[in-house]
Amino acid sequence: MERMSQAMEKVRMLVGIEVEDDRQLQQQEDEESTFAFMDDFNRHCTLTTQQRLYGFAICLVAGLTCTLMSMLVFFNPIKFGIAFTFGNLLSLGSTGFLIGPKRQVNMMLDPVRIYATALYLASILLALLCALYVHNKLLTLLAIILEFGALIWYSMSYIPFARAMISKIMVACFDTEF
């Protein structure tokens, strides 16, 4: 049977019939395989509305608790950086329960907020790197300040015209002439 299909494919190639269709099908399959992981993940992780709300609430409360508890160790920037960053990751992951992981990733990679997302995720990695590997308190504190600013900028990307308004306010406040 396999020989028959190979022979038919050779005939198609010689005659030129359906060769383009086969290539188009292969391209479509390649494109679909890139999203296959997320589709499989969404298909196997079907949650009821109540389960989604519970997951959202638990992750959000845990994230806010970690973020607020990090204030207790504020004067130890390494512990503060770890707790603050872990709280931010939990809070960010909580919205995945509401809208689903695929939609959240698509929204994060939307052209409107791709730079804000990249800056936020890079600042999270930088804060963890400074806290866990470098063990420098000053660098960790600077990374946390950057992370907090990136979090605000990322959050404002979900509110229409909020980033433009903040930019205008900042220019108006700091545009002084001596």
Question: Can you summarize this structure?
Answer:
This protein has 178 residues and is mainly α. It has helices at residues 2-15, 19-34, 36-44, 49-69, 77-99, 101-108, 114-134, 137-156, 162-174.
Explain what this protein looks like in three dimensions:
- The protein has 178 residues and is mainly alpha-helical.
- 81% of the residues lie in helices and 0% in strands.
- It is built from 9 helices and no strands.
- It has helices at residues 2-15, 19-34, 36-44, 49-69, 77-99, 101-108, 114-134, 137-156, 162-174.
- Helix 5 (77-99) packs parallel to helix 8.
- The chain starts with a helix and ends with a helix.
- 16% of the residues are buried.
Instruction: Summarize the amount of helix as a percent range.
Output: over 70%
Biggest sheet descriptor: none
Number of strands: 0
Calculate Rg over CA atoms.
Answer: 24 Å
Indicate the topology.
Layout: H1 2-15, H2 19-34, H3 36-44, H4 49-69, H5 77-99, H6 101-108, H7 114-134, H8 137-156, H9 162-174
Which characteristics define this entry?
9 helices, 178 residues, mainly alpha
